[in-house]
DNA sequence: GCGCCGGCCTGAAACGTGTCAAGAGTATCC
DNA sequence: GGATACTCTTGACACGTTTCAGGCCGGCGC
């Protein structure tokens, strides 16, 4: 019931008959203390159940053993996979991750950045809500390392790890064009997200490349990148007269695609016979969907792991570190949802 | 490039021409300082871009503004929804969450608990890997608040928030029995997880209640509660001669059920015609599965939110707080995967 | 004018750790 | 035997806050 008074390094020192400095050395530079002393101190630490106070350590050292991860949506498996990668890398280095969920909300993101700064985290891995680099640069100038995640840095002095979203858009679009589709809907949003815009630009590029006019690609913007928003977009698409209706839909992420699929199915529209469908991210659930979903795969876990490694490297050997923009390549995975499509015009 | 020397409360005090104590008061008890002074100090804080150092505050105060959340699997949407609830509650209270993923691994869990203790978190919300309450009780005795999550506490002096897993198992099983199934497989694991055992017990109870013998329910244990393990279990089930093969499968969670569904489909077994399927958790993807999945729904977000509130309450008004075991009720959601099942014996 | 009160502010002492210059032994070498 | 070098250990200070016992000052009642 009564919380025993926390045992400090001082209690350990007294009990072991050494000075606090020595105890500290046992903890941080065990090699410089004599084996006999070291063992005695370790025994006392064990006996007393001493646990070092990281706040004090951090206060003295200047920076802590934690880093922040700010993502757009915890409910999106894409980000949990990324988080998994981050966790693996940081766990190995004995660091803790403060996981924050901006939810695509600017104000929320800002609050979390304040909080992380107060925590004096070593650094922040972030998928920013918008291109408010200014806030992030200010952060970095104050000594908080910043690595952009799933977003390419436009500044040479800020690291980033991303996937080539334009290329991803191209892959998906080329695939649909080759299958003969000529009325294609792009579903994505909010438009503030760079990923969404880039994937759309990639799609447009594929269109031009194939010598097709712009009007073959029609844009449906969504309020959020979620399943619910996907359902909504689908009913907008189905609201058009059949002759003008798209024969294929390319979604900026898999959650949207799953939403689209649900609504199409509910309204008796067959996938892929009536409408073909391609998603983005290739989350694990894409393959398990009502109609297995074609999708553009990203190395999710690797994304997180690499970002964390970059940050740790910069933290531990700043002199050796060179800022870099790592860009991975996406890969199209074709499944039922776009396989046997025969656009019926 | 050069990180400006962090500005401290002392710099603010000097610049504003007041003492450090006053600056601290402006921050923590603004009401007791004269309006004119307060404004002057606030102006300087803004101008200098002062950000309080939480480590120092925590050192002085004894405990920090963070709490730990330890879950079994980040990749499971059930837990991200729970995390979401936790985040909502803590965000309102201005606290940060350190998110940890034990991955069902005892050693990993233990490492994370050490780390959280070093961070002097206010408390820990945890879904323990096994019933190693001993470790948690020790933690609590040292002043770290503990709330069990998705696991009922057996001790009156430890709070817990859970869902009645036995009842959930009963609901699912009754449903299958009423549909006429007499050879039912239970897929779940690892068996160390209390949730798995309780759901199984609930199923057995429903069996006895219906006056049926034990052999109508056959247990298939899995190494982990994942999609891959589900696929594996399904192929074990299909390995049996048709006459002995189950006509219905009840899975301890939806990931397993999705795996089972994938493998059944791959091997041309129809759901629900050949084999009916019921999952557990009712994650969002259950409804979007190849065959929409019947599942036992749990109030996921509410689970997290309630647990966090309990912990905050205990932290902020310990005298008023009474330890309690909150138990929510699950609810069966029937969808295609078990709807039109006619067991063909 | 005196005593008292209340509002506002100050200054210093902690909190638990890391660091570092200096000291205490002890072994080595001529 | 004394100087030198080396290995461990010590003790004090610093990190940035919060807290708290006081101090100053102007106003009030007598």
In short:
The structure is a homodimer of 345-residue chains. Chain A has 345 residues and is an alpha/beta fold. Chain A has helices at residues 9-16, 20-28, 35-48, 54-61, 77-92, 106-118, 133-141, 165-178, 194-209, 227-238, 254-266, 300-316, and strands at 66-71, 96-101, 123-126, 145-149, 159-163, 184-188, 217-221, 248-251, 276-281, 294-297, 325-328, 331-333.
Describe what you observe in this structure.
The structure is a homodimer of 345-residue chains. With 345 residues, chain A is α/β, with parallel strands linked by helices. Chain A folds into three domains: 9-52, 434 Repressor (Amino-terminal Domain) (Orthogonal Bundle); 63-163 and 300-328, Response regulator (Rossmann fold, 3-Layer(aba) Sandwich), CATH 3.40.50; 165-298 and 332-338, Rossmann fold (3-Layer(aba) Sandwich). Chain A is built from twelve helices and twelve strands. In chain A, the strands form two sheets. Chain A has a six-stranded parallel β-sheet with strand order 2-1-3-4-5-11, with helices on both faces. In chain A, strands 7-6-8-9-10-12 form a six-stranded mixed β-sheet, sandwiched between helices. In chain A, strand 6, helix 9 (194-209) and strand 7 form a beta-alpha-beta unit. The mean pLDDT of chain A is 93. At the A-B interface, helix 4, helix 5, strand 2, helix 6 and helix 11 of A face helix 4, helix 5, strand 2, helix 6 and helix 11 of B. Chain A binds a DNA duplex (30 and 30 nucleotides) through residues 6, 8-10, 18-25, 27-28, 32-34, 37, 52-62.
């Amino acid at each position: 019931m009564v919380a025993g008074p926390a045992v400090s390094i001082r209690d350990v020192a007294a009990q072991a008959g050494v000075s606090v400095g020595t105890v500290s050395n046992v903890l941080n530079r065990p090699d410089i203390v004599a084996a006999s002393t070291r063992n005695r101190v370790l025994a006392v630490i064990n006996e007393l159940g001493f646990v070092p106070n990281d706040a004090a350590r951090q206060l003295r050292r200047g920076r802590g053993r934690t880093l922040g991860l700010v993502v757009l949506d915890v409910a999106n498996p894409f980000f949990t996979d990324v988080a998994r990668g981050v966790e693996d890398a940081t766990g190995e280095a004995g660091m803790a991750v403060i996981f924050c969920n901006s939810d695509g909300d600017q104000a929320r993101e800002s609050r979390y950045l304040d909080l992380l700064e107060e925590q004096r985290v070593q650094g922040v891995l972030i998928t920013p809500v918008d291109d408010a680099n200014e806030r992030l640069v200010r952060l970095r100038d104050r000594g908080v390392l910043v690595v952009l995640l799933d977003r390419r840095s436009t500044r040479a002095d800020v690291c980033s790890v991303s996937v080539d979203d334009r290329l991803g858009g191209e892959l998906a679009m080329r695939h649909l064009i080759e299958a003969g589709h000529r009325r294609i809907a792009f579903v994505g949003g909010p438009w503030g997200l760079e990923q969404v815009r880039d994937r759309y630009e990639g799609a447009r590029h594929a269109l031009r490349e194939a010598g097709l006019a712009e009007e073959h690609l029609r844009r449906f913007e969504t309020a959020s990148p979620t399943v619910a928003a996907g359902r909504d977009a689908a009913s907008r698409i189905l609201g058009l007269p059949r002759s003008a209706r798209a024969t294929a839909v390319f979604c900026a992420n898999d959650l949207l695609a799953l939403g689209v699929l649900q609504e199409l199915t509910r309204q008796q529209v067959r996938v892929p016979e009536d409408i073909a469908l391609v998603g983005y991210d290739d989350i694990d659930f894409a393959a398990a969907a009502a109609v297995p979903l074609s999708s553009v795969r990203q190395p999710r876990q690797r994304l997180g792991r690499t970002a964390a490694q970059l940050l740790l490297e910069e933290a531990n050997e700043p002199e050796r570190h060179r800022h870099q923009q790592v860009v991975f390549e996406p890969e199209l995975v074709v499944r039922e949802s776009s396989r046997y499509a025969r656009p019926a015009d």
